[in-house]
Structures are given as structure tokens and as C-alpha cells.
Amino acid sequence: MKKIWLWSVLLLSGCHSGTGDRQVFTVDHHLNARSQEPRVKMVVIHYTAEDNASSLRLLSQGDVSAHYLITSPDGKSAPAVTVYQLVPESRVAWHAGVSGWRGYTHLNSISIGIELVNPGYYRKGGMTTCTLYPPSQLLALESLLQTLVKRYAITPVNIVGHSDVAPSRKQDPGPCFPWHSLANAGLGAWPDAGTVSQFLAGRSARAPADPRVLIALLSRYGYPVTDPASQSEQTRLIRAFQMHFRPAGVTGKADAETEAIARALLSKYGTLH
Ligand SMILES: [Zn+2]
């Protein structure tokens, strides 16, 4: 009985911030420091590899989440797609996991996560292939990205895929994700074709290149490199880079064109170090 009474007192006193009714300070908002920047610095794009209903359930009830989920058109409802906001932008969503980009780690705390409903990869005629993203879904994504870029002054290099920031673990949003057309809409990075051919300098696109040189370039662009000498890590990093910037040729091998693309990106957007 005594215990119950004590708890009641504690609960009641909690309403008064532990100081009773007395106000001990005021917050003065009239100054605003010059040195500051948005907490959100990047957008990470994913696919769910599930249908609309399972994606919504997993991302709202499960151990992972994203700020936004863009459904796939089911042909029944209008408008064709729905954009769910599942986590407020001011809060951290659990979408990136162990990740790194341009020197930052723990990207969940500095990014907005967007999940697109897409089945991902499937086997067809003995080949693994990815699933195209419907135009209405991409239109919704573009519109959402425009508002985020504006709100947080997100730079083109900081609009990335999950596979860019976790290349050893993740393959989404995959080579079917249209990074090039997104860049044509003013969103995300893309190299200038002229600069790529300049750096290609007459070599054939698939001529072998030095993987160590390529990995060093990818690291300077922002890719998280932990063990540059590891062959399996080299392959995964090169695959991730090619999925983003040369989806027609995802080989995991260093070649002249992949190296020229990396150099063209660095000359356009600057190097990290
Ligand atoms: Zn993902």
C-alpha cells in the first residue's frame, strides 16, 4: 500500500518537470548561429523486394523502417501510387544499417531513406534479371526528391542507392534503377559523356584497367573502402559503382570505361580527399 502511494506521488510530480510550478529558465530564440547546416545530408534509395502489402507491414511493424515508402501501381486505385511517410524526417529511420559514404558512417542519422516497392531480381531463362520501375512510381520519387533536395540542400553526389553505401551487403535499388534519367531531371550525379570519352583516351571500353587504381578513385568519390587489397571487396565495390553508373555492363571487373566514368565524376563533382 505504501509503495502504491509513493508511485502516485512520483507520477503526479512528473507533470511539473521536477521543479514544481516555478520556471527556472527561459529560452531566448532571437539569435541564430551562422555556423550550422542541415542534419540531413543525403538520401538513400532502396527497393523492398516485397509486394505493396508486405512492404508496408514490414516497414511499419518490423525491425526496419524508412521515412518514405512508394508503392507500385496496382492498376486499381487512382492516383496510381501512394507515398507513405512512415517516419518523420526529424527522426531516425532504420534503413541503411552498417554503411558509409564520403567519410560518414552510421548513415541512418544523417539520411532520409526512401523505399520503392519492387520485386528486385528474378531468374529468367537461366539469367538473373532485375525488375523495371514503373513510370508513375518514378514520377512520385522525382517529385519527393525535388522537395527533399530543396529542403536540405542535398548535393547530387549525396543521392545514392543502398548498394553504394553498403556495397559488401546490398544490391538495391539494382541496375534497373534509372539513375541516368533521374540525373536528367536534375537529381543525383551523372558524368558528362564528353569527359568520359576524354578520359577513355581512345582505349576500348572493356580494356582491362588496374583495379587498385579504380578502387582508389571510388574511395575518393565517396565509396566506403575498408580493405582495398581484398579481391572480393574490389569486385563488390566495382559492381556497386557499375550498377549505378554503367548498368548495361555490371561485370565487377575494372575496365577502361569504368575508370573513365569514375574520373569524369571526380572532375565534375570534386574529390573527397
Ligand atoms: Zn535497402
TrEMBL record:
Q: What are the GO MF terms of this UniProt record?
A: N-acetylmuramoyl-L-alanine amidase activity
Q: Which EC class, in a word? A: hydrolase
Answer yes or no on keyword Nuclease: no
Q: Which reaction does it catalyse?
A: Hydrolyzes the link between N-acetylmuramoyl residues and L-amino acid residues in certain cell-wall glycopeptides
Q: Which residues cross the membrane?
A: none
| Record flagged with keyword Hydrolase | yes
Q: Which CDD domains match?
A: PGRP
Q: Spell out the InterPro entries in the cross-references.
A: Amidase/PGRP_sf, Amidase_domain, NAMLAA_amidase_2, PGBD-like_sf, PGBDSf
Q: What is its EC number?
A: 3.5.1.28
Report what the protein is called. Answer: N-acetylmuramoyl-L-alanine amidase
Taking every annotated instance into account, which residue ranges of this chain make up the domain N-acetylmuramoyl-L-alanine amidase? 28-174
